[in-house]
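Lab notebook, design round three. We kept the backbone fixed and only want residue identities now. Task for the bench partner: fill in a sequence for the structure below.
Input structure tokens:
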């Protein structure tokens, strides 16, 4: 049948988690973009609503309890170096409880809260697209990021 993202375009989700004007990022262990800082997310399972998948993936990867989320964009990532192709819905969460943890060390090696004006490198293409899609409330922080790029 093949693997999503590798043998045919995969359908995924990503969740930007913001708290106190900082974004939660995790460092990827596996392709695509291993070693890059990334928002949380993953693939949507068959018959699973995308919003539910975003919440599930975020809770699995962070240990946080995710409250209300809002969809902010659709992105397509074709990562030539890893031969992966993903189409993803991006969501934003400001309503989260708990403290993040490293719950999947086989997939993610490190994490942290970062101001949008002082992000770690390298950032994944997926994360850059998510930050660019943030609503106008974060626009001053986002424009500072664009000026630095």
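Proposed sequence:
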């Amino acid at each position: 049948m093949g693997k999503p993202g590798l043998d045919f375009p995969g359908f995924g989700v990503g969740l930007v988690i913001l708290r106190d004007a900082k974004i939660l990022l995790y460092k990827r262990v596996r392709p695509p973009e291993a070693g890059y800082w990334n928002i949380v997310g993953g693939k949507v399972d068959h018959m699973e609503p995308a919003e539910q998948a975003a919440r599930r993936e975020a809770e699995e990867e962070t240990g946080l309890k995710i409250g209300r989320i809002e969809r902010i964009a659709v992105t397509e990532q074709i990562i030539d170096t890893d031969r992966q192709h993903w189409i993803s819905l991006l969501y934003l969460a400001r309503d989260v409880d708990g403290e993040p943890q490293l719950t999947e060390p086989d997939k993610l090696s490190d994490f942290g809260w970062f101001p949008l004006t002082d992000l770690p490198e390298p950032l994944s293409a997926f994360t850059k697209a998510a930050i660019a899609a943030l609503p106008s409330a974060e626009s001053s922080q986002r424009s500072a990021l664009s000026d630095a790029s």
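Keep this in mind before ordering anything: Strands lie at 10-19, 22-28, 37-38, 40-43, 65-66, 69-79, 84-93, 96-97, 108-115.
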